[in-house]
Amino acid sequence: MTRPEILAHMAFFGYVPKMARDIKKNFFSVIWQELL
To answer: If you compute the radius of gyration of the chain from its CA atoms, what whole number of angstroms results?
Structure first.
């Protein structure tokens, strides 16, 4: 793997968990509002 590929992978795997957390948080807050 070349250096740009390594950086791209690091950026990708750093970004995806954050995005997943945000989506999960928004998802649960929407569901919570629907229940109330």
So the answer is: 16
